[in-house]
Amino acid sequence: MPDLRYFIVDAFTSRPFAGNPAAVVPLESWPDKSWLQSVAMEMNLSETAYFVRTAAGYDLRWFTPQVEVDLCGHATLATAKVISHLGLAGDNAAITYSSRSGPLVARLRPDRIELDFPRIRQEPAESPPGLVESLQAKPTYVGKNKFDYLLEVASESELRSLAPDFQQLIRVNCRGVIVTAGSVDPAVDFVSRFFAPAAGINEDPVTGSAHCCLADYWGKKLGKSKMTGYQASARGGVVEVETIGERVILGGQAVIVAQGELLV
User: Fold this and answer.
1) Which pLDDT belongs to residue 82?
2) Contact indicator for 229, 192 with CB cutoff of 8 Å
3) Which regions of the chain carry the CATH code 3.10.310.10?
4) What letter does residue 210 receive in the DSSP assignment?
5) What residue spans of the chain are helical by DSSP H?
6) How far apart are CA 130 and CA 164, in angstroms?
7) For a 10 Å CB count at each end of the chain, is N or C smaller?
8) Residues 193 and 203 sit within 8 Å (Cβ to Cβ)
9) 175 vs 185: CA distance, rounded Å
10) What are the percentages of helix, strand and coil residues in the chain, rounded to 5?
11) 47 is annotated as an active-site residue
12) Which DSSP string do the residues of 147-171 spell out, in sequence order?
């Protein structure tokens, strides 16, 4: 395999060293899955994205250090930033992806990038054994979508003070858990955190796919279609959301902070 460029991009932030970092690797064709997984493990970021240019747009895949995933928002945003940086978008403000979650679109706006993602609906659910205990939380609501559990807690301060037992959480039968609360900041509608040790990510800094579910949950609760979410991780990040039928528009910025070459 020839030497390949890679980029490190901080997504859902306007400044370096905030938001959620993703590695992005442009490819001419698809190598073995084992190579893709090995590079993601070497990058050791919550997600590494790979894209291959096609006649219709781009094939896009996402890997955590341990598994290939079906949907990832921040790495898709990061990929759009790299495609634009490389001059591959041309005069077209829309970048079309083919993915394991079907067709996705990233739109290049003057002040941000918007992602057209599927709406992920959730329903009330029973908490699986060990989940609440591992989070040391007192949820006021428990729900579940096709990927993750969703828990609401009573306040933003309770959310921010959570200190999960990840060794216990990794044994719970779930991919990940979204924990959310209303915001004390009038400029923000809701806050959240996302934990997924089973996927190799104890706490994800900013999770686009989680906001596809949060938009559904808080939209119904607040009676809004447009909202602002803040993911209250150590790095933190802002995600603008808008629900349109069965789609969610995620808006955010991204910053390329590094680039290099893969020599193997």
Assistant:
1) 97
2) yes
3) 4-118+251-262, 123-243
4) H
5) 33-43, 73-85, 131-135, 156-161, 166-169, 208-222
6) 11
7) C
8) yes
9) 30
10) 20, 40, 40
11) yes
12) S-EEEE-S-HHHHHH----HHHHTT
Residue 50 near residue 61 (C-beta atoms within 8 A) = yes
Distance CA 45, CA 94 (A): 27
3-state secondary structure of 84: helix
| Cα separation, 104 vs 258, whole angstroms | 26
Which of 47, 114, 152, 203 does the annotation list as catalytic?
47
What are 21-45's pLDDT values in tens digits? 999 999 999 999 999 999 999 999 9
CA distance 39 to 182: 38
In the CATH scheme, what is the code of domain 4-118+251-262? Answer: 3.10.310.10
Distances (CA, A) of 110 to 79, 107, 129, 252: 17, 10, 47, 11
- In the structure encoding, which two tokens stand for residue 214, read together? 């949060």
Q: Output the six-digit token pair for 113.
A: 């990038």
Is 90 in contact with 62 (CB distance < 8 Å)?
no
| Four-residue CA torsion sign, 237, 176, 168, 161 | positive
Dump the DSSP string for 171-195: TSSSS-EEEEEE-SSTT-SEEEEEE
Residue 36, token pair as written in the block: 């893709």
Q: Supply the CATH classification number for the domain 123-243.
A: 3.10.310.10
Identify whether the C-beta of residue 35 lies closer than 8 Å to the C-beta of residue 50: no
264 confidence band (pLDDT: 50, 70, 90): confident
